[in-house]
Amino acid sequence: MAGGDELKVLGVWTSPYVIRVRVALNLKSLPYEYVEENLGSKSALLLGSNPVHKTVPVLLHGGRPVNESQVILQYIDEVWSGAGVPSVLPADPYERAVARFWAAYVDDKVGSAWQGMLFTCTTEEERAAAVARAVAALQTLEGALAERGDKGEGFFGGDGIGLVDVVLGGYLGWFRAVDRMMGAQADRPGEDAAAGEVGGAVPRGGGCPERGAGRRRQDARVPAHPARLERPQIQVNCDIVRS
Questions:
Q1: Distance set, CA 25 to CA 72, 74, 228 (Å)
Q2: CA dist., res. 76 & res. 86, Å (int)
Q3: Are 94 and 106 in contact (CB under 8 A)?
Q4: What distances in angstroms separate CA 65 from CA 42, 50, 61, one per listed residue?
Q5: For each of the chain's 243 residues, which pLDDT tens digit applies?
Q6: Given 60, 94, 158, 181, which is the most exposed site by the fewest CB atoms within 10 A?
C-alpha cells in the first residue's frame, strides 16, 4: 500500500457510486476498511470528510478524504499503479480521454434518467419521458460498446476491466431493480411496454460482459453487502444515488 497508509471507505452498500469505488479497490487487491453509513443520521466522520455535499462515497487515505466517485476512481488508479497492478485507465492519453468521456456520459445521461424514474417522476407522463431518455442514452452507449466488441475486446477498457466498465457496472443492480419495479425484467421484455423497452436497451457488452470468463473476473471483485443487511427493508434515500 502506498506509504503504508490505511484506506477506509464510507458508504452505503446499495449505492452504485460506492459499489464502483469498492470494485476498483478490489481490482487492485487493496485492503481497506468499509464503514456503512446511515444517511438518515450521518456520522460526524462523513460530515467532516465531505462538508460540501455530505454524501457517500468518501475514500479516506491516511485520514485524508477524497470525494466524488469518479474522482476517487482516478485517484486510486494514479496512486496504486505499476508493474503487475491492474490499471483502470489506459496508458495512452487519447484512450484515457475517451474513457473519461464515456464514464461521464454514463452518469450524466444514463444514470440521471434512471434516477428520474426512481426518485423524481410523479406522473406517468414524466416516467415515460424518463424512459425515453434512458433508452436513447443506452442505445448511444451500446453503439460505443459495440465498436469495442468489433475490435475483439471483452471490456470497454480493452482486455481488462476499465473505467467505463467500473462506472457502468455499479448501476447494474439498479437496472434490474427498476425493471422489476416497473413490472418487467430485462430478460423478459414485453410484460410492460416501457420497462421492456428499457430492459432491452441495457448494454450487453463492456460493463456487462457476456463472455463467461469476463463475467467471472468481474463478479469476483464485486463487493458483497454485509450479512446483517440480507433481505433488507430498504428505505430509499436520494443521497444513495448522488456522487
A1: 10, 11, 22
A2: 11
A3: no
A4: 16, 7, 6
A5: 554 579 999 999 999 999 999 999 999 999 999 999 999 999 999 999 999 999 999 999 999 999 999 999 999 999 999 888 999 999 999 999 999 999 999 999 988 887 888 788 888 898 888 888 888 988 998 888 888 777 777 788 788 899 999 999 998 888 887 777 666 433 334 334 444 444 444 444 444 333 333 333 334 455 654 433 332 333 345 555 567
A6: 94
